[in-house]
Amino acid sequence: MAHTLPQLIEKVTNASSVNQLCGHYMDAAGELFGSQHWGIYIHGKAGQRGTIHLQGLPDTFIDYYSQIGAALDKVMEYVVSYHAPAHEQLIFTEEAWKQSELYQIGCGKIYDHEHIMTGPIVGGGKLIGTVQFARTSGNPAYSTQDLLQLSAICAHISTKLALLQSENELLLPKSEISLTARELQIAALVGKGLTNAEIASELWISQNTVKQTLKRIFRKLNVSARAEMVAQLQLSKG
To answer: Domain 170-235 has what CATH class?
Structure first.
């Protein structure tokens, strides 16, 4: 069955864990973006190993990229700088791409990455992961439409990861007052010190939505300030 962008977004949104999210993504992303090689990488927290899934590539690619390729990857450099998806044609002319070090000493000549595309996974105002695609020889370059679709799926992955992490970091109060998934997500970001504007940007919602959600949480918890809200939620961790 052919995968569509709305179907993938729905599966990502309904994932109950990071592993399930990655599994849904890996099952559909290659076909959706017409790619022979693809993967997802989510950074680990301090002292923890990150999560990486690859399709169509040998394990040697991980060592190659970490030791050599990353330092030469101008597409990744763009994604890190701008938190926006990119393919090689945004950075290079076709001739310059074929002559680039990344193409000549690894991605192109060894792993047959004729065309590449990378998208950002963001959280807390920084890059916390990436998704990567490659098309092999004989396939067309990625298009503007591919970048638009990739931007959409990256936004949903970023939002879902924030929710999954908030569910792990904050537990509901012992009084068993019920917070919705969105309320818990916003409370967790407040606990990390984010402003309403930063939360709105992180979750792709309006500042007014953040404000109104916090008002509902305050009523449910019978508190009047952000610090009280966070303190009450954190008390339930013990």
So the answer is: mainly alpha
| Cα–Cα distance measured from residue 216 to residue 222, given in angstroms and rounded to the nearest whole number | 10
Q: What is the pLDDT along the chain (238 residues), one digit of tens a residue?
A: 577 999 999 999 988 888 889 999 999 999 999 999 999 999 877 656 678 899 998 878 888 898 899 999 999 999 999 999 999 999 999 999 999 999 998 888 899 999 999 999 998 888 999 999 999 999 999 999 999 999 999 999 999 988 887 666 554 444 455 777 778 888 888 888 889 999 888 888 889 989 999 998 888 888 899 988 888 776 444 4
Read off the pTM. Answer: 0.71
The architecture of the domain spanning 5-165 is: 2-Layer Sandwich (3.30)
Beta strands 37-42 and 126-135: pairing type? antiparallel
Q: Helices 196-203 and 207-221, interaxial angle, to 10°?
A: 110
Return the biggest CA–CA distance within the chain. Answer: 64
**Can you name the residues that pair with 120 across neighbouring β-strands?**
130
Q: Is the dihedral of CA 83, 89, 90, 91 positive or negative?
A: positive
